[in-house]
Amino acid sequence: MKKRRYKVKSSKDFLIFGCVFFFLCIWAIKDAWFPSDTVLKKHPREIISSFEIAGKIAKIHVDEGDFVKEDSVMAELSSTELEAELNKMKAEYAKERKSTQILELAIKNGVQNGATKASIDDMRNRKLQAEEKMDELHSFVNSLKDRQEKTKLIAEKSGTVLDVYQGERIQVEAGDSIIKIHPQDNFYVFNQSLAIFSFFACIFFFVFHFFGN
Hints:
Blueprint: H1 11-33, H2 37-42, E1 47-49, E2 55-60, E3 67-68, E4 73-77, H3 80-112, H4 117-149, E5 152-154, E6 159-164, E7 171-172, E8 179-183, H5 187-212
Antiparallel strand pairs: 1-8, 2-4, 2-7, 3-6, 4-5, 6-8
């Protein structure tokens, strides 16, 4: 008496699905536990933040274990002298701007009232010099504003503070490590879960393929 053989239809499909999930499992394992430099750059496991300029730390706003949100201020450098210089430059800029406006009005009145060419040319030269100085002061003010922004240490991503390397009233240099964060990123958790799911899925389909033949 011949034994009956039960052949599952489309057994090759199980083999194909098994291979797909096998390679998906390998890919997920690589990204979850052995990420490339490109992946690490996009999804860093930790971020060490530092100031772009040197200065004395005025305030540390976080402690180890704290959760920080992206773009929140974690620490600040002292900016008293910088603010004083910025206010001074703003005042000088406003003075030159007012001088330019007065000269512009004086030139207009001189032309209308028949002032001499030499007098008008002199006012125009003074106005041109005032405008050049005003442009220089404007660039300087913008530079100081940019420097003022750099006195704040901003969180690149949301995450948990792992270490605070420096304390308040400590003089630091540009690039010194200040705070280390473990970023909130589901990338590795997702790939770990995907690897486990894919592993069991490929085993499932390979078993069905084996018993289906």
